[in-house]
Automatic annotation (TrEMBL):
Superkingdom assignment: Eukaryota
A molecular-function term among this protein's GO annotations: acid-amino acid ligase activity
Family: Belongs to the IAA-amido conjugating enzyme family.
Pfam families documented for this protein: GH3, GH3_C, GH3_M
PANTHER family, A to Z: GH3 DOMAIN-CONTAINING PROTEIN, INDOLE-3-ACETIC ACID-AMIDO SYNTHETASE GH3.2-RELATED
Protein name from the UniProt record: Indole-3-acetic acid-amido synthetase GH3.1
Lineage: Eukaryota, Viridiplantae, Streptophyta, Embryophyta, Tracheophyta
Organism in which the protein naturally occurs: Gossypium mustelinum (Cotton)
Segments forming domain GH3 middle: 366-444
Any single GO CC term annotated in Swiss-Prot or TrEMBL for this entry: cytoplasm
Amino acid sequence: MISPSSSIMAVDSTLSSVVGASFSEKDAKALQFIEEMTKNVDSVQERILGEILSRNADTEYLKRFQLNGATDRDTFKSKVPVVTYEDLQPEIQRIANGDKSPILSSHPISEFLTSSGTSAGERKLMPTIHEELNRRQLLYSLLMPVMNLYVPGLDKGKGLYFLFIKAETKTPGGLLARPVLTSYYKSDHFKSRPYDPFNVYTSPNETILCPDSIQSMYAQMLCGLIMREEVLRVGAVFASGLLKAVRFLQVNWKQFAHDIETGTLNPKVTDPSVRECMSKILKPNPELAAFITKECSEENWECIITRIWPNTKYLDVIVTGAMAQYIPTLEYYSGGLPMACTMYASSECYFGLNLKPMCKPFEVSYTIMPNMAYFEFLPHDDSSAQDSSRDSPPRLVDLADLEVGKEYELIVTTYAGLCRYRVGDILRVTGFHNAAPQFRFIRRKNVLLSIDSDKTDESELQQAIENASVLLKEFNTSVVEYTSYADTKQIPGHYVIYWELFVKDAANAPTDEVLSQCCFQMEESLNAVYRQCRVADSIGPLEIRVVKNGTFEELMDYAISRGASINQYKVPRCVSFTPIMELLDSRVVSKHFSRALPHWTPDRRR
Ligand code: AMP
């Protein structure tokens, strides 16, 4: 069953009792569905696993583990291994190359979703099947009914959402490979969605579906400005996207004011369908143009969001996980508006939603909906680390059996054929809604640096540094120590790499030109998502800060003074703690920036 229950019983939900508000029949159905799912977590999970295993029983992958038709949890857990992307890569490559036999899924793989997680520098390819769109849409359909419990009147205005499609490619076998949101926005589920007064956007579909991201942003912002009085919520998927929109306004407000004053669209917007739809919306409005000029020409941009869109009730952006670094900047621009983190999802699977979307960012907990996939959890604590060191198989816990306060790594088994797949997210159980555990997103495993959707791990950083240091050889110079920092004080944020150098011959030390080349070389070495974000101006040029000799020893002394063991001390490869940043920054002798954009095309390098 992938649609909310059709029976509208009296809604006895603990959800609806939040405000005791009256709600529409549609909302009542959605809330009832959430209640049913969260009360019956274990039986729903058992059913979902049974469905997945029976429909995929004849796939090459499952046959390999000789389940012999069994669809129960015990057999599944004892026979099917827990895997990573790398383990599945041979199967995924065969599908990408055009093998249409039922390898992972009995249903045809409709396309690949390109995740922001990478493998060997390229986006991971997540197989999906057509019906997954229904599951994703179902989760989306639950968001507004929950929001309506907390924020009344959202049907009286519009949402200004900055939504974009991204480049897509074809695999050698002809399957599309594109991000999950691009797939969703281009689907009929989104394009032909029925009118819903609670989901009216200022951005016409044509502007969202414009493949040129600058023209798309331009048109969406212009619509938002024209409809400023009607806007009740402002959002993007992630916080970084909304800040990018603010910066876009900062750079382009004069042009927007000109377009609005004259009622003519900037000729740089050339996409015919965007021009056509904008011609119906854009009319000369000198008063609005004067207002925008007045607000945007001020030096101080504090509260710019509420100044331009005065009826905004909340920001709809994810600020959990890596995006938490943007909370202070968003608070500055929005005058402290609530930030609603509504859902938790990935290319592999959409997981769940926040049942208290108006809570503070640090209180956000997501409730995984048990109908989305079969979920298991690998305990992520010291005792489980010991277990794995003794090589005992990891003990995976079911959704209904998790303990409050404990941390787990999320493992999914999806309809599209991922079996016991490690997503790489670490979650902490904060409580329950009915029988459904609620999770705080703690972090993604092995991510050192992240500005936008990029995720750089320790080995990628190490490799980038090795590649860049080759340029120092002819100057008899080497990198003695390094660490890194994701600097998000400015938009866009950028990677800062602190280098302590050993220069043998001071007379022949590497110049600024050479060190800038090193910055560029590092960027060239980083993964495809990083390079794409750079090209799209979502990440600024990488910076190397050269620090005085002896700085890293001071860093160690500082750590030891705070209780670190001398024997076990390791240089942190990423820093953010203020006293350490201050120490490093006070020892900087020179700063260097990448002067060119790294190479990026939608095509994969391998
Ligand atoms: P992708 O595979 O590119 O679709 O990215 C999915 C990943 O983004 C998840 O596995 C999480 O690590 C992260 N993510 C998604 N939603 C949230 C959220 N609400 N809060 C924090 N991190 C999230």
